[in-house]
TrEMBL record:
<dbReference type="InterPro" id="IPR029057">
    <property type="entry name" value="PRTase-like"/>
</dbReference>
<dbReference type="InterPro" id="IPR000836">
    <property type="entry name" value="PRTase_dom"/>
</dbReference>
<feature type="binding site">
    <location>
        <position position="194"/>
    </location>
    <ligand>
        <name>uracil</name>
    </ligand>
</feature>
<protein>
    <recommendedName>
        <fullName>Uracil phosphoribosyltransferase</fullName>
        <ecNumber>2.4.2.9</ecNumber>
    </recommendedName>
</protein>
<comment type="pathway">
    <text>Pyrimidine metabolism; UMP biosynthesis via salvage pathway; UMP from uracil: step 1/1.</text>
</comment>
<dbReference type="Pfam" id="PF14681">
    <property type="entry name" value="UPRTase"/>
</dbReference>
<feature type="binding site">
    <location>
        <position position="200"/>
    </location>
    <ligand>
        <name>5-phospho-alpha-D-ribose 1-diphosphate</name>
    </ligand>
</feature>
<keyword id="KW-0808">Transferase</keyword>
<keyword id="KW-0328">Glycosyltransferase</keyword>
<dbReference type="InterPro" id="IPR050054">
    <property type="entry name" value="UPRTase/APRTase"/>
</dbReference>
<dbReference type="InterPro" id="IPR005765">
    <property type="entry name" value="UPRT"/>
</dbReference>
<feature type="domain" description="Phosphoribosyltransferase">
    <location>
        <begin position="6"/>
        <end position="208"/>
    </location>
</feature>
<dbReference type="GO" id="GO:0004845">
    <property type="term" value="F:uracil phosphoribosyltransferase activity"/>
</dbReference>
<feature type="binding site">
    <location>
        <position position="104"/>
    </location>
    <ligand>
        <name>5-phospho-alpha-D-ribose 1-diphosphate</name>
    </ligand>
</feature>
<comment type="function">
    <text>Catalyzes the conversion of uracil and 5-phospho-alpha-D-ribose 1-diphosphate (PRPP) to UMP and diphosphate.</text>
</comment>
<feature type="binding site">
    <location>
        <begin position="199"/>
        <end position="201"/>
    </location>
    <ligand>
        <name>uracil</name>
    </ligand>
</feature>
<dbReference type="GO" id="GO:0005737">
    <property type="term" value="C:cytoplasm"/>
</dbReference>
Length: 209
């Protein structure tokens, strides 16, 4: 069974409090999403292996640590996942970026695919899928299925707010994928929105409502 890690860092919790407030405007919302993404990515990369490398300091030669094998990719689920890319890139700047376009049909809540462009060598990369919201889980489950169909094997999922329903769906569909969550909320409402949540993440990042 995969790991489900809910962040307990006080800075992450404080910043999630800021983006939940309905009066937080687009600029602050977007910047804070990016900062939270950076911190979740820091936690989600704890397992990366290190190698010893010999270097020269201005004083003497010594052995330092270097990340071993740097083939990584960040894959945002459009649109809202785009808001997490810059923050994640601050932690893993050499990562390639793929894009998966999915939107939730407002009636059925089922994901509808409209775009997929991934690094040519994505099957050899460790992939970090980012999307601020894990609600029913339909979008993230579908995105990860698409990645597996392209041959990706090492996949992690990073989100800012999750509902228990989405976590369950992810674990059932993809028990091999570790899930990193900023905050685990109570439930979904009758429209499939996370409660207490933060509203529509895409609209708040891009100012479209
Ligand atoms: C939101 C969010 C997730 C999805 C989560 O995207 O960013 O992708 O809903 O819901 P689910 O877990 O029930 O699938 P949305 O479909 O609103 O599209 P947008 O990012 O373009 O606004
Ligand atoms: N998508 C969002 O943007 N917010 C929710 O609460 C659920 C899905």
């Amino acid at each position: 069974m995969s790991k489900v890690m809910v962040m307990d860092h006080p800075l992450i919790q404080h910043k999630i409090g800021l983006i939940r407030k309905k009066e937080t405007g687009t600029k602050d919302f977007r910047e804070t999403i990016s900062e939270i993404a950076m911190m979740i990515c820091y936690e989600a990369t704890r397992h990366l292996e290190l190698a010893d490398v010999q270097i020269e300091t201005p004083i003497c030669s010594t052995t330092v640590k270097e990340i071993k094998g740097r083939k990584m990719a960040i894959v945002p689920i459009l649109r809202a996942g785009l808001g997490m890319v810059d923050g994640a890139l601050k932690m893993i700047p050499a990562a390639k970026i793929g894009h998966i376009g999915l939107y939730r049909d407002p009636e059925t809540l089922k994901p509808v695919e409209y775009y997929c462009k991934l690094p040519a060598d994505c099957a050899e990369r460790e992939v970090f899928v980012v999307d601020p919201m894990l609600a029913t889980g339909g979008s993230s489950v579908a995105a990860i299925r698409m990645l597996k169909e392209k041959g990706c094997k090492k996949i992690h999922f990073l989100c800012i707010i999750a509902a228990p329903e989405g976590v369950k769906a992810m674990q059932e569909a993809h028990p091999d994928v570790d899930v990193y969550i900023g905050a685990l909320d109570e439930h979904l409402n009758e429209h499939g929105y996370i409660v207490p949540g933060l509203g529509d993440a895409g609209d708040r990042i891009f100012g479209t409502k």
